[in-house]
Amino acid sequence: EYQDMSPKRMMEIRKLNCNPMTMKVTYYRSPVFIHQGHMQWLWDTEGRRYLDLFAGVATVSVGHCNPKVTAAAAAQMKKLWHTTNIYVFPALQEYCEKLASRLPDPLKVVYLTNSGSEANDLAMLMARLHTGNHDIITFRGSYHGGSPHTMALTSNSAYKYPIATGGCVNTMCPDVFRGPWGGSHCRDSPIQTTRTCDCLQGQCMANDQYISQLKETFATSLPSQIAGFFAEPIQGMGGAVQYPKDYLKQAYKMVRERGGVCVSDEVQTGFGRTGSHFWGFQGHEVMPDIVTMAKGIATGFPMGALVTTAEIAASFARGAHFNTFGGNPLACTIGSSVLDVIQEDSLQQNSHDVGTYLLTGLAKLRDKHEIVGDVRGKGLQIGVEMVEDKVSRTPLSPAAMSDIFEDTKDMGVLIGKGGVYGQNFRVQPPLCITKDDADYFLAVFDRAIQNYVDRR
Ligand code: PMP
């Protein structure tokens, strides 16, 4: 009965028995009723096929129901589903060793959780215990979690609740398109901004300005010592926001001088998504003290992780940390299989190749349409910043965003939305998409933008 439930019945139950938020976030004017998925494709209850370029919010990394991962999971399900890590079973050790081998030294100690919020919660606690300090800095516009603690890291009013959340300060995001400084060549992307750049030969003026903002945050909003600095290598929810190339390097140094540790939130950028590197932080040539991850880690199965140094793990070992489901045999098996598939199917390379192809195609649409302000990102972590016009850079209105979004969906492509004002279209598909898929999307997206422009 439930397998073949009608859309009408699903909405009735959703209204009565589900978290009321689920009524708000059906995403489209008329909801998409998903029935089945395979790799980069989704089918609705009527059998209509969609190219899924949002992958359950950048999560389904190696494709929906990837046959290799599904087979590994099914085999494990027949053997052992659950016992916590108070007993020893092979899947956990195999996974921790494999994951640690994907990270540079000295990041070698793995903690397994069930979500990104849990991983960041743990990182906050660890940073505070290790340093003996309390205060944490994150960027405005960031998303690091929805639990009461991580909500303080998150800097987007839509996800905040009015509860006491002390000890976190949000500093200016060094956004080279929408921020006050920056332009061409400030960031690491095959696509440059349309803003002209004030940078002198060999010196990024925008970087200096944003770093001076961070200095001011230290001087005005924090005690002299801090616990940590959390940053995504490319901001996901913010709409693939990129920073000047040297920013993180200098910020890490300043944080460490003040006694803090540096946390790279790789929930969206990890596992090859940025194409050039397996982890986003490697693109900034920095070495974090703690790395947090989730989403793509298990292509949609609930799982998260934190990896840190032996030294920080030793400080944390003062207390007893326990997590019933973290590191369960099924999650470890799926996580392990995802790592294998990324390697066997060269998905990081594919992310780089198809991502660069998509970015190049999108840049042509930016040059063609006045309302496409910026195209940015790396690999398959892509944002398209929509504006009223290229001179004012005023965020495109929610109604216009919605028109283009709906039209794109009606032509068979699902994308995401982001940015503090909802002004950004996000393209973060499964890493297995092809250039043909990219061409299909580019044609559909061009048409949807043109349809809106013709109507307005
Ligand atoms: N960090 C980042 C960068 C995220 O995008 C998210 C989720 N959108 C989280 C942390 C929180 O992850 P979860 O929803 O699994 O708790």
Explain briefly what this protein structure is.
This protein has 456 residues and is of the alpha/beta class. The chain contains 13 helices and 15 strands. 37% of the residues lie in helices and 14% in strands.
How would you describe this structure in keywords?
14% strand, seven-stranded mixed β-sheet, Aspartate Aminotransferase, domain 2, binds 4'-deoxy-4'-aminopyridoxal-5'-phosphate, 456 residues, 15 strands, 37% helix, alpha/beta, 2 domains, Aspartate Aminotransferase, domain 1, four-stranded mixed β-sheet, 13 helices
List the helices and strands and how they pair.
Blueprint: H1 7-17, H2 21-24, E1 34-38, E2 41-44, E3 49-52, H3 55-58, H4 67-79, H5 90-101, E4 109-113, H6 116-131, E5 136-139, E6 168-171, H7 205-221, E7 228-231, H8 247-257, E8 261-265, E9 290-293, E10 304-308, H9 310-316, H10 329-344, H11 347-368, E11 372-378, E12 381-386, H12 398-410, E13 413-414, E14 416-418, E15 424-427, H13 435-455
Parallel strand pairs: 3-13, 5-6, 5-7, 7-8, 8-9
Antiparallel strand pairs: 1-2, 2-3, 4-10, 9-10, 11-12, 12-15, 14-15
Helix pairs in contact: 4-10, 5-10, 6-9, 7-8, 11-13, 12-13
The chain binds 4'-deoxy-4'-aminopyridoxal-5'-phosphate.
